[in-house]
Structures are given as C-alpha cells and as structure tokens.
Amino acid sequence: MIYPFLHRKVIFPIRSKRFKFAAVMIPIHFTNGNPNVILIKRTKLVKNHAGEISFPGGIFMDKDVEMLVTALREISEEIGIKLKREQIIGYLDTERTLTSSYIIYPYVALMDSLPKIINTNYEVEKILDVPLIPLLKSRESDLNRQRQYSDPHLPKFTYKNEVIWGATARILDQLANFFSSEITN
C-alpha cells in the first residue's frame, strides 16, 4: 500500500547555515503478522530533543555522503539493527522540526521479523516496539502545540502514556494517510 507513495531518489544534502540535515529510519516489522514499528525514547543526556519519542536517527555527517547512509548508520549505532539497502523501500516527505533547525528525511524499512536488538547507546533510554495500526488510531489534535506554534494541523499520538509529538508525529501522520482504510475499520 505504501510503496507507490514513497520517494526513491538519492539525497545528497547541501551545506546550509540555516538548516541541519538529519535522517530517521522507520523500521516496520511483521513478526506477529501485523505491522509493528520501532520507536525510541531519547535520554536526557542528548543535546536536542531530550526525553522525546522518536524514530532511530540523527544528524548527517560528511562521511555519510547521502541521507540514506545517515539513517542506516544511526539505527545501527542507536539500537544495533543492521539493515541492508534492499530492506529500504523509500522515504516519506521531509519534515522540519519546530524547536530546532533540522530537516529530517524519514526512510521506511520493511522486515519480516524484528531482528535481535543487540544494544543501545547513551542516546536511547528505551526501545518501544509498537503495533502500528493502534498507534495510528491514537491520533489526536495537539491543541497545546497548535496554539504555541500557530499551526492548526499539528497531531499527537499516544502509546502507553508516552506522547509522541513534533516531527515524529507528523511523520506518523504521513503513514496514517497510507493506512487510512485499516485505521477507519
């Protein structure tokens, strides 16, 4: 369902004084037959977005050359999952963070089953293995941030008392559009 809507061109970021480029991986696995997605809760030790729920990912480094390499490197560093390029089916539209100057490229990986998560690094407080359709059904309007940022379309999602907002919520909102028939049933 999602495949026809994804972008597939190679992204080489440009140097910018205004923005920083980052990439995240949206790892979707079908271990129990239904789609689950892996999210992380960031520790309080990180400089940006401390304590927030996000997809594994991080900032582009020159050695990465392209944004997909950033997403692959970051998921490996943060939660020990080593993906192959053929598992990446494309990327969604970019999202810009509201509280920092990041432009994020969200890549989508499909896996038959969840690989063993070897370790986490200092950036990850915990790993969340979340059923995707129930998560997408939890969508609400984020009224507080809508007022704060003067944007009437900001969503939030909830999983086990964890609120997912910001760029991660807007990325999930893109996924919700692709899975709309499952969400309404």
Question: How would you describe this structure to a colleague?
Answer:
The protein has 185 residues and is α+β, with helices and mostly antiparallel strands. The protein has a domain at 3-9 and 17-133: Nucleoside Triphosphate Pyrophosphohydrolase, CATH 3.90.79.10. Helix content is 24%, strand content 30%. The protein contains 5 helices and 11 strands, in the order ββββαββββαβαββαα. Strands 1, 2, 3, 4, 5, 6, 7 and 8 form an 8-stranded mixed β-sheet that branches. Strands 9-10-11 form a 3-stranded antiparallel β-sheet. β6 (95-96) and β7 (102-111) form a beta hairpin. The longest helix is centred in the middle third of the chain and has 13 residues, at 67-79. The mean pLDDT is 87.
Keywords:
5 helices; alpha+beta; Nucleoside Triphosphate Pyrophosphohydrolase; 30% strand; 24% helix; 8-stranded mixed sheet; globular; 3-stranded antiparallel sheet; 185 residues
Compute the gyration radius: what is it?
16 Å
β-strand amount: 25-35%
Q: How much is the average pLDDT? A: 87
CATH superfamily of the domain at 3-9 and 17-133: Nucleoside Triphosphate Pyrophosphohydrolase
Order of helices and strands: EEEEHEEEEHEHEEHH
Count every beta strand, where a strand is a DSSP E run of 2 or more residues.
11
CATH topology of the domain at 3-9 and 17-133: Nucleoside Triphosphate Pyrophosphohydrolase
